[in-house]
Amino acid sequence: MIQVGDALPSTTLMEYSEVEGEGCSIGPNPVAVDKAAAGKTIAVFAVPGAFTPTCSAKHVPGFVDKADAFKAAGVDEIWCLSVNDAFVMGAWARDQKTAGKVRMLADGDAAFAKATGLTLDLNGRGLGLRSNRYSMLVRDGKVVSLNVEAPGKFEVSDADTLLAQAKA
């Protein structure tokens, strides 16, 4: 499993864009993790699935609500990762009103989750291989803090915990 001090894996996530801008076409666009994280402080959190109860009711809203506080603490971007496709993440972004606050990034084939060792096997429950629930603070591509949840829990990966770590 990825640890504090480790670099993020050189994988590619996908991001759905609804409007053209900054060289991005409409639709899914690749995001090279190592390039996107270079020189930035990023609050990353991952969820087992888009539109799932805890993820939609608590996890994403906490980061959306605290987006300005994260910026004030020196965080350049907030990323939400999930093992879903870019179209689902785009629809979830609209539903959660994340525009300008949280980048909703798809880890469609779980490459990032596998590379970090933060997978969650939900095959027996009809959901396949997913990402574990966690949050991490990343500076210039390296993990500064990591908060991994126990199965079925939502206690340490919330926005308040990561915000306190960003302010420290």
From TrEMBL:
Summary of the function given for this chain in its UniProt record: Thiol-specific peroxidase that catalyzes the reduction of hydrogen peroxide and organic hydroperoxides to water and alcohols, respectively. Plays a role in cell protection against oxidative stress by detoxifying peroxides.
Organism: Acidovorax lacteus
Reactions catalysed according to its record: a hydroperoxide + 2 glutathione = an alcohol + glutathione disulfide + H2O
Keyword Kinase carried by entry: no
Name assigned to this protein: Glutathione-dependent peroxiredoxin
Transmembrane segments: none
Gene3D superfamilies: Glutaredoxin (3.40.30.10)
Domain Thioredoxin residue range list: 2-168
Keywords carried by this UniProt record: Antioxidant, Oxidoreductase, Peroxidase, Redox-active center
Keyword Oxidoreductase recorded: yes
EC number: 1.11.1.27
Domain of life where this protein originates: Bacteria
Enzyme class: oxidoreductase
